[in-house]
Structure formats: structure tokens, C-alpha cells
Design a protein that fits this description.
Keywords: Coiled coil, Cytoplasm, DNA-binding. It comes from Corynebacterium canis. Binds to DNA and alters its conformation. May be involved in regulation of gene expression, nucleoid organization and DNA protection. Belongs to the YbaB/EbfC family. The protein is α+β, with helices and mostly antiparallel strands. It has a domain at about 30-85: 2-Layer Sandwich (Ybab, Chain: A). Helix content is about 50%, strand content about 15%. It has a three-stranded antiparallel β-sheet. A hairpin with a 4-residue loop joins strand 1 and strand 2 (about 40-45). Helix 1 packs antiparallel against helix 2 (about 65-95). The longest helix is centred in the C-terminal third of the chain and has 31 residues, at about 65-95. It is rod-shaped, with a radius of gyration of 20 Å. The relative contact order is 0.16.
Length: about 110
């Protein structure tokens, strides 16, 4: 049995590390929009988890029913977070060799 070429292994590891950094940067630059209430509440979020915009349709602003609006905001945030997780999984899956796990939840 022959020994693997260490310089070749190191080169391959460095290439994979560079590829991983590039994909991680792409994820951070990704922008998604989460929605709730059929689009009545929308939250825009970066791949790094920063909320950059919130849009609330005036039809859901009811001073006598604040709970519904709160639920819609929470739902839109969770939807945006789920979308970022999906993007992360799609982009990192081919590099990591994990095609179907929940890698995105790590970000």
C-alpha cells in the first residue's frame, strides 16, 4: 500500500478551505424575504441573520388585536430564518458532502 502524497493532500485541503470561505461569504451576502399572513407581513434578512427591512400591511394593524400582528411578525421572522437555513444547506451541502442534513441551522 502506498503512502498518500502529503503535499497533494495539503493542497486539496487548502482548496476546500478556500471554497468553504467563498461559499460562507456568499451565504452572508444572500438576502431573503420571509412572509406571514399571505404576504401581509414581510421581513427581509441577510444570510448573517440581520433584519434589514420590515413591511406590515396596514390591514393587519388593529389596536384591539395586537396579538395577531405579533404572531405575524414572529412568523415572518421564522420564515426568513428558515429560508436562510435552506440557502446555507444548498450551498454548503456539495462542499461538505452532507446533502440532506440541517447544516443551515448552524448559521
Amino acid at each position: 500500500m502506498t503512502q498518500p502524497d502529503m503535499s497533494q493532500l495539503m493542497r486539496k485541503a487548502q482548496e476546500m478551505q478556500e471554497q468553504l470561505k467563498k461559499v460562507q461569504q456568499e451565504i452572508l451576502e444572500t438576502v431573503v424575504q420571509g412572509e406571514a399572513g399571505n404576504g401581509l407581513v414581510k421581513i427581509t434578512m441577510t444570510g448573517g441573520g440581520e433584519v434589514t427591512d420590515t413591511a406590515i400591511d396596514p390591514r393587519v394593524v388593529d389596536p384591539d388585536d395586537v396579538e395577531t400582528l405579533q404572531d405575524l411578525i414572529t412568523g415572518a421572522f421564522n420564515d426568513a430564518h428558515r429560508r436562510i437555513a435552506e440557502v446555507s444547506e444548498q450551498k454548503l451541502g456539495p462542499i461538505s458532502g452532507f446533502g440532506g442534513g440541517s447544516l443551515g441551522s448552524m448559521f
